[in-house]
């Protein structure tokens, strides 16, 4: 906004809490919190919010904001300049105005010089609580000072540009703080000549790695974990907020409260709930094994998994960016665990083309994931293109090898073989003679034949929603199209 406003700010004379006087101030202001500025993410947003919370708690507790996005308040940040010596004017005070969005005039003002809260309507001043003054207000003051000196960098920036500029400035402040912290901790005292400290450099003064910043508060740390300048606890890439590097206080504010763990693979910190875990292999699953064509398998399987005891309680894996050796993902969407630890994965089955791996239970019971040749019993998947199965009842034909030797086969397996008489109009998956007559298997719009998984989406031809509501609506595991 950078509106240069001539405004009158009532400020109290220090020491006299009842006789306000009027200053004429030249003051750029920026709206930081308002019902309509939610998205700009000014780096001072959380800081101003904390001040706002304190002010309202102390002076108007019924309107204390509960969260920064509540949209009930308007807060503007600005500063006043004073001209005491020749040259460019100095920053004389940070000024923060608060009002409810339903009000047209300022309700409370916070100034740093003098350091006080002012209740405009009641005309009273109260001192700023000490803990707020030394932390949050000091931060705001440092920001405003830096912002006021880069005043001419942009002329009348819009709110978005202003926020970008502010973030850049705050990053520089944080980089400076980083170098200052190294000095204070004497981490770098004997490593490098202090005179060489490039206080505004975006690189670490110790190891020359990049500095990384918390995306929220911009606090800086060395990118390299091994560098003594890397903050402890380190900034973290929460796997939930993949593009966000966040510091711990901000992570908590983002709602990952207290549930952050170190990924055993990449050593970055992640929200616990976004780390993979193995739920433990179910014990004693009682199902009629691999009964092809049995539609009741699906709900039964889910219920059986859910009711079963497990060999161990949930065991933590790693963050979503990493893989731990031996951990697997079962290709069945019905599986009892999204990720499976090496012990529980031991009985699993990979298909011939290695495109699909399924745990022992899903390989046997979850239809269409692993397709076994009824004769040689080798495991295939639909991407192997080495076996055909009916997309509806999941009865499999012989694999292509066994089919070639067909002539010398006359065992009972022959009798079980499905005859493919149709295919899905969308994915071309084959449908056997037994299932072809089932009228539910066509698009309700254009009556094109569709297989179970294609019925779940829009029909390509008529663009009609053909989603079926039959009992089998959980079969996204068998999505692969058969190459005919
Ligand atoms: C992280 O967990 C939350 C809550 O369980 C979930 O909503 C979110 O989608 C997860 N993030 C990712 C990247 O999967
Ligand atoms: C099976 O799962 C793996 C990884 O989880 C995935 O890359 C692959 O595409 C899946 N295969 C099929 C056919 O869905």
From TrEMBL:
Signal peptide interval: 1-18
Domain of life according to the entry: Eukaryota
Stretches for region Disordered: 465-484
Keywords for this protein: Signal
Protein name: RING-type domain-containing protein
Organism, as annotated: Suillus discolor
């Amino acid at each position: 906004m950078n509106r240069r406003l001539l405004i009158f700010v009532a400020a109290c004379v220090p020491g006299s809490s009842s006789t306000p006087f009027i200053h004429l101030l030249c003051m750029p202001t920026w709206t930081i919190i308002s019902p309509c500025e939610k998205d700009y993410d000014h780096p001072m947003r959380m800081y101003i919010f904390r001040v706002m919370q304190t002010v309202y708690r102390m002076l108007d507790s019924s309107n204390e904001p509960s969260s920064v996005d509540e949209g009930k308040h308007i807060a503007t940040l600005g500063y006043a300049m004073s001209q005491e010596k020749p040259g460019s004017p100095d920053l004389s005070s940070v000024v923060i105005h608060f009002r409810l969005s339903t009000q047209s005039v300022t309700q409370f003002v916070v100034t740093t010089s003098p350091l006080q809260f002012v209740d405009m309507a009641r005309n009273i001043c109260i001192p700023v609580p000490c803990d707020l003054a030394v932390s949050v207000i000091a931060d705001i003051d440092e920001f405003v000072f830096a912002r006021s000196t880069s005043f001419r960098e942009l002329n009348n920036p819009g709110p978005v540009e202003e926020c970008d500029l502010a973030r850049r400035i705050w990053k520089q402040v944080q980089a400076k703080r980083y170098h200052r912290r190294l000095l204070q901790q004497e981490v770098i005292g004997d490593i490098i000549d202090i005179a060489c400290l490039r206080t505004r450099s975006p690189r670490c003064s110790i190891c020359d790695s990049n500095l990384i910043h918390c995306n929220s508060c911009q606090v800086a740390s060395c990118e390299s974990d091994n560098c003594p300048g890397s903050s402890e606890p380190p900034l973290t890439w929460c796997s939930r907020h993949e593009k966000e590097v966040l510091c711990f206080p901000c992570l908590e504010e983002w709602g990952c409260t207290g549930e952050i763990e170190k990924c055993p693979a990449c050593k970055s910190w992640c929200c616990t709930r976004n780390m993979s875990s193995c739920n433990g292999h179910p014990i004693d699953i009682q199902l009629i094994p691999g009964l092809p064509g049995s539609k009741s398998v699906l709900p039964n399987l889910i219920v059986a998994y859910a009711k079963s005891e497990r060999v161990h309680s949930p065991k933590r894996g790693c963050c979503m960016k990493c893989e731990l050796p031996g951990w697997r993902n079962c290709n069945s969407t019905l599986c009892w665990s999204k990720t499976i630890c090496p012990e529980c994965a031991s009985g699993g089955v990979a298909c011939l083309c290695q495109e699909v791996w399924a745990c022992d239970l899903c390989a046997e019971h979850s239809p269409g994931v692993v397709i076994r040749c009824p004769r040689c019993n080798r495991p295939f998947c639909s991407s192997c293109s080495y076996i055909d199965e009916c997309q509806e009842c999941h009865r499999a034909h012989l694999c292509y090898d066994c089919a070639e030797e067909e002539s010398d086969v006359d065992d009972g397996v022959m009798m079980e073989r499905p005859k493919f008489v149709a295919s899905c109009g969308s994915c071309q998956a084959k449908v056997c003679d037994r299932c072809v007559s089932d009228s539910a298997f066509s698009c309700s719009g254009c009556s094109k034949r569709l297989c179970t998984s294609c019925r779940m989406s829009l029909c390509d031809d008529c663009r009609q929603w053909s989603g079926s509501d039959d009992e089998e609506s959980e079969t996204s595991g068998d999505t692969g199209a058969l190459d005919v």
